[in-house]
Amino acid sequence: MIWPKAVQERVKTGHDRELIRSYPYRSACPSTLWGELVASSTKDLFLAGYTNYFFWTQIPQFADVIRRKAEEGCQVRFLLGDPDSDVTRQRETIEDVALSVSTRIRITLEHLDRMGDVPGIEARFSAPLDGANHVSLSVFKFDHQALVTPHLARLVGHDSPLLHLRRQGEGGMFDRFAEHAEELWSRATSCPTPAPR
Fold this sequence. Notes:
With 197 residues, the protein is of the alpha+beta class.
């Protein structure tokens, strides 16, 4: 009688099965996991963080990796905050750190610009009315897995918690966060076209 109850309390059921692991800080998530998730994506690599700048330092030869992904048919999308928006300026005041939000966004834009126009890679700025919703929640989708960071008060992204999710069915946590990111993407505007090379 004791064992079934003990097992039942430890085994995840329903939508709880989608939570693989949680981290109290995004920086506590192993860098190898980010690289593995990017490498394993075959259909949809959707990076909907407000700045996304850390991918360029976290994953070795990230530009080559995403270029190869796109060439193999994977859709690669970057949803960024507008570096010149009021939301970005407000967030910079709140965070009050040397590496400002707009600088981190521009790092991503510079790396994308260096890559030139790669079919299958697209970048957009979240719409002005969506800026506050975007800056407060980062969703990084790798096919049927996601890393999600709800940003806390005055903390920068790496100091906020992170959830690692795997889709197990319709209407779960994975779908809810993915739908949020897709909604922001649907209203987003194209980033400036890279200069011809």
